[in-house]
Design goal:
With 333 residues, this protein is of the alpha/beta class. It has ten helices and 14 strands. Strand 13 and strand 14 form a beta hairpin. 41% of the residues are buried.
Length: 333
């Protein structure tokens, strides 16, 4: 990983399609219990707004490329306006976004005191994408496809990603030779036929394969349960590659007609895993779109995730941090 790689990243145009959210964090201190009810009183010190879901993936990408677009579904509300301002500031083109007249923008407010989450307040109405909405997305993707290098499908099981949507996006991408990667949701058991790679985390992978994870005390390459999961998912999802993120054990790559490949973690310290999956799919896809092979791309994603888990809260990795991490790895070799 060097400056030339970063220069190629900047030339890539990527469209993120998925469930977008607005994350609100209210942080403060607790000194007393409310006289109205047995609950802590949080004295607010800081309040922040962050892109969530597919919007966070897009913002991860935008640090490396100016050609990032986001297609999700928002409502006609203040949360949508706030999210658009954040995306604009981060350099993400949100013009492809769908606006619903009857659904709210998905938002999650977390009340945190001394790094302990006290309560989370969700604002959402789950409704599957309609046929008319899927047709509108097909029109928008068709217009963008000739200029795209990759599409990321980011599924949080909130209703946007359906079998119909997957079918039309896959067909459009195939016609224009556009790379398609997927970050799946266990709440939405789709068959990911037609995509190049699916990236579940460990929990999602075992659940999708229908196998209980006993967390065997062996390396991933020797874990018979994990190896079986990879074989099952390649067939079940009918995809070329499956990359399973394993937290502190790194990543495991499964490909058709090839031996599984384990990539050890690069994390030095783990403070918070929030957003690590978003960073992984973003950098993995960008690396593949820039011409890297899958092993090189997975190593870049793994290195980026190792940086993010060392930060508190939903965070991103910068190009400088990624370059420095690879330089340190090479100096230690």
């Amino acid at each position: 990983m060097n400056q030339a790689d970063l220069d190629r990243f900047r030339e890539c145009r990527v469209l993120v399609i998925g469930d977008v959210m607005l994350d609100r964090f209210v942080r403060g201190n607790v000194r007393r219990i409310s006289p109205e009810a047995p609950v802590p009183v949080v004295e607010v010190v800081e309040e922040t707004l962050n892109p969530g879901g597919a919007a966070n993936v897009a913002c991860n990408l935008a640090l490396f490329s100016p050609g990032v677009m986001l297609l999700g579904r928002v409502g006609e509300d203040i949360q949508a306006q706030q999210l658009k301002l954040i995306l604009d500031d981060d350099g993400v083109n949100s013009n492809p976004m769908l606006v619903s007249k009857h659904l709210p923008t998905i938002s999650k407010a977390r009340i945190v005191a001394r790094q302990q989450q006290i309560v989370r307040v969700d604002r959402e109405k789950l409704e599957w994408l309609s046929h008319e909405e899927a047709e509108e997305i097909a029109i928008r993707v068709s217009k963008l496809a000739p200029e795209l290098d990759a599409i990321i499908i980011e599924d949080y099981g909130k209703g946007l990603i359906t079998k119909e949507l997957l079918s039309v996006v896959s067909q459009i991408a195939a016609a224009h030779k556009v790379l398609v990667t997927v970050d799946p949701s266990p709440r939405n058991p789709l068959r990911w036929s037609g995509v190049h790679l699916v990236k579940p985390n460990r929990l999602e992978a075992f659940a999708a394969a229908g196998i209980e994870d006993h967390f065997l005390p062996v390396s991933p390459s020797e874990n018979k349960e994990l190896l079986q999961v990879g074989e099952i998912l390649l067939e079940k999802w009918d995809t070329h590659m499956v990359l399973v993120t394993l937290g502190e054990q790194g990543m495991m790559l499964f490909q058709r007609d090839k031996e599984p490949h384990h990539i050890p973690t690069r994390a030095r310290e783990v403070y918070d895993v929030s957003g690590a999956g978003d960073t992984a799919i973003a950098l993995l896809t960008l690396a593949l779109a820039s011409g890297k092979d899958i092993v090189e791309a997975a190593e870049i994603a793994n290195q980026a995730s190792g940086i993010v888990v060392g930060k508190l809260g939903t965070a991103c990795v910068t190009p400088e941090e990624l370059l420095n991490a690879f330089a340190e790895t090479q100096s230690e070799a």
